[in-house]
């Protein structure tokens, strides 16, 4: 059996390895079960000094060996915070104006990619399939090839890829695209992303091709989480507190790509235009702080504090809080259970690679009384979720109308829409995503 080598910036923390809680670890669970694996990446820790003798942390659990390295403060700043999350992240989410471009960070990004390749290469065997993940590691395949690695190497981009006209605002955009030639398979989430990347390849005369591999969730496990979660005491407490009011829910990392200020303004418009809901509806927004040391994330937090305060001050009553707003994470089972007892979810990113919360929301519903999903047209997930209430997340009136529609929709219409959404969520899953990517990578050898 061939070994699968997974490379990603984030590697599941030791405490999460037995029972992965989210992200890539859940998505790759199926692939990991099928193959012996090596998972290589950042340990999540910063190390002192210049990193000259940094150790490789190696740890095996079942058929997976985890091999991780620490990053120095300078690398963390330049590679993770700076180039990956201060430049590539906004650009790939169509927000060139939020880029804090720095050539210095670009150099550190390149050197960390080379460092990853240099530390991984000696661990590789000829027959391995190497699968590199996400924007932190665009040039890593090229760095491996420069070290004469012959194994098959695939790359999957989890976030959107913008049109070339936007991408080229990155000074090294063409080098970055050229580096992708090193990969045998290049995967993206949606047809739009593939079109954009392939357009860039053709403008630059690069003989490479991006293919679409939409990611999904493990719907059975999420659905059973939602059922099991019903017995949690917090669920009873919330239900008592709701006193029969319908619950609207939102769950997002605190990120400007998620359209949170716009969403809250949509809820404000909803309360303004439909005053009959005041005091009669609850909105729970769970937004764990993310990348809190990047300046744009700090100003987003301040903006959200201000908008939530404004809405609660304007419409609140001594016994009713319009927005219940949390900035800490909740356990997966509790989230799934809250999804199940809610009447509607707001998933309204301005731009998102896929958005798995949308799929999880569908998986968590009860067939006899499903809640409605209000979903941004600009989430990758929208391509196959036409039965959600699709909105333009910039338009607060559209959000308000959709919320009213979600909360007043007949049970039979909700069930029909949910059945169709459900079959999509069970058709394209984490397992099908991983297996089809790995199948494409396996075929390379014979090609
Ligand atoms: C997105 C990215 C992932 C990243 C995750 C969490 O989903 O596609 O690569 O790991 O956000 O962000 P963080 O910066 O905490 O790793």
From TrEMBL:
What Gene3D superfamilies does UniProt report for this protein, alphabetically? Glycogen Phosphorylase B
The organism sits in which domain of life?
Bacteria
The record's Pfam families line, in alphabetical order, gives: Glyco_transf_20
Tell me the PANTHER family matching this sequence.
BCDNA.GH08860 (PTHR10788:SF106), TREHALOSE-6-PHOSPHATE SYNTHASE (PTHR10788)
What the record says about family reads: Belongs to the glycosyltransferase 20 family.
Q: Know the name of this protein?
A: Trehalose-6-phosphate synthase
């Amino acid at each position: 059996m061939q070994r699968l080598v997974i490379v990603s910036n984030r590697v599941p923390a030791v405490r999460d390895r037995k029972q992965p809680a989210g992200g890539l670890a859940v998505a790759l669970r199926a692939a990991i079960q099928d193959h012996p694996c090596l998972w290589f990446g950042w340990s999540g820790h910063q190390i002192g000094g210049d990193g000259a003798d940094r150790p490789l942390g190696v740890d095996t659990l079942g058929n997976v060996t985890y091999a991780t390295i620490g990053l120095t403060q300078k690398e963390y700043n330049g590679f993770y915070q700076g180039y990956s999350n201060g430049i590539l992240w906004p650009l790939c989410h169509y927000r060139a104006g939020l880029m804090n471009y720095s050539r210095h960070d670009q150099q550190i990004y390149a050197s960390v990619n080379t460092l990853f390749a240099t530390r991984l290469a000696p661990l590789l065997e000829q027959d391995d399939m190497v699968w590199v993940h996400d924007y932190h590691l665009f040039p890593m395949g090229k760095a491996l090839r420069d070290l004469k690695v012959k194994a098959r190497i695939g790359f999957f981009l989890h976030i959107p890829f913008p049109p070339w006209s936007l991408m080229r605002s990155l000074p090294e955009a063409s080098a970055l695209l050229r580096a992708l030639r090193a990969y045998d398979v290049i995967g993206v989430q949606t047809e739009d992303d593939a079109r954009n990347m392939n357009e860039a390849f053709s403008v630059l005369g690069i003989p490479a091709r991006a293919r679409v591999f939409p990611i999904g969730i493990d719907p059975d496990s999420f659905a059973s989480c939602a059922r099991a979660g019903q017995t949690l005491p917090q669920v009873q407490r919330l239900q008592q507190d709701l006193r029969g009011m319908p619950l609207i829910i939102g769950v997002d990392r605190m990120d400007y790509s998620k359209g949170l200020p716009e969403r809250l303004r949509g809820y404000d418009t909803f309360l303004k235009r439909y005053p009959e809901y005041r005091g009669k509806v609850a909105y729970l927004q769970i937004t764990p702080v993310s990348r809190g040391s990047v300046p744009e994330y700090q100003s987003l937090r301040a903006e959200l504090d201000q908008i939530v305060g404004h809405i609660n001050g304007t419409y609140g009553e001594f016994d009713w809080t319009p927005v219940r707003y949390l900035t800490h994470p909740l356990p997966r089972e509790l989230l799934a259970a809250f999804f199940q007892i809610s009447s509607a979810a707001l998933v309204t990113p301005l731009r998102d690679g896929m958005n798995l919360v949308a799929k999880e929301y569908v998986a968590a519903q009860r067939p006899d009384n499903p809640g409605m999903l209000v979903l941004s047209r600009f989430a990758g997930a929208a391509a196959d979720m036409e039965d959600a209430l699709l909105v333009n997340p910039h338009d607060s009136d559209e959000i308000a109308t959709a919320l009213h529609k979600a909360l007043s929709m007949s049970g039979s219409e909700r069930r029909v829409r949910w059945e169709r959404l459900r079959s999509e969520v069970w058709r394209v899953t984490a397992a099908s995503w991983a297996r089809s990517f790995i199948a494409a990578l396996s075929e390379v050898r014979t090609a």
